[in-house]
Amino acid sequence: MSRRVGDLSPKQVDILAEFRERLEDVLPDLPAQHDHYLLRWLRARSFNVQKAEAMLRKHLEFRKHMKADSIIADWRPPEVIERYVSGGMCGYDLEGSPIWYDVIGPLDPKGLLLSCTKQDFMRTKIRDTEMLRRECQKQTEKLGVNVETITLIYDCEGLGLKHLWKPALEAYGEILTMFEENYPEGLKRVFLIKTPKLFPMAYNLVKHFLSEETRHKIIILGSNWQEVLLKHIDPEQLPVAYGGTLTDPDGDPRCRTMINYGGTVPRSYYVQDNMVKVQYDNSVTISRGSAFTLEYDITTPSSILRWQFASDGADIGFGVFMRTQEGGGAQKVGDMLQVLPSERYNSHMVPEDRSLSCPEPGTYVLRFDNTYSMLQSKKISYTVNVLLPDGQTQSPRSIRGGGRLE
Predict the structure, then answer these.
(1) Cβ atoms of 206 and 169 closer than 8 Å
(2) Is the dihedral of CA 27, 29, 35, 40 positive or negative?
């Protein structure tokens, strides 16, 4: 059985009904409420209803944090990403699923990560995925059949050592993990074309981020790749450059209005080359395997908490939490309210400068996390300010006397 609508065992039908009932309190918040959508999460967790529920509820927190529902309308990637991140949606396969192209060769991962934050790169991928999800919805309405997956074509021509740069592999791994955890069962098939001799090494470095189900959808094509693509895609939906007949209105066989082919990022985009030297108010060295927390009392609702920081030589984890225990006693971060999930920031390449609206008064905890590093201490330079609703700025003092090492 395919474990899809119309092809479920009696037990799977019962599990689906239980799953829907358990999610009754959050159904209105889901991107879709139909059985097709719910079954994606059940399939991703082998119809273990408890694990599927936990996965979907965690995804809702992810959507809230990333503002996924409005990211297409309200957020635009930095110019360097729009110009130099290769790929794009172009055409539909024979079943009506959107086709997305990732063009690896021209991609300049080092130039991109020296020109924008890893988080902006991640948001761009989320934005693209949300666009594809909406495109699937449009195809469902247009064709009268459920369309919930995409065909992905990886053009590996030009894959080289520059793509195996460690920070790039780490960022790519985080993106793959994000896809697996938040957009399960979204791939129909993945075609890898024009793979060079380096490909097996590159694949071995990232395959552990992929679920077994995703790996089974990967199809590595040989020299007859155009012939195989045409078995799944109508020639009119496939660019001339990939063996079809589709061109841009001006006759471009590569369909550049739909597929970005990227290129080398000019140094004029590099943040470090253009950055005015920031004078931070404080600095601290965080030992290997340790963390450093700053606690601030926000007494005025709707204040803005702003932080700036840079790290020396390596990335650092950072997150924002809110104490739920009164009285100032010790409280573990795991027991606090998560306001901004902890992520690893490449602040040694691109300094961070962000802010957060604090709708409720309380004690906000900024946590620099180096617990994942067993070998290297990290020096962090930072400044924290609070912007009050009346527009005045204050430089708060940590109520822990300048911070606390864990």
Answers:
(1) yes
(2) negative
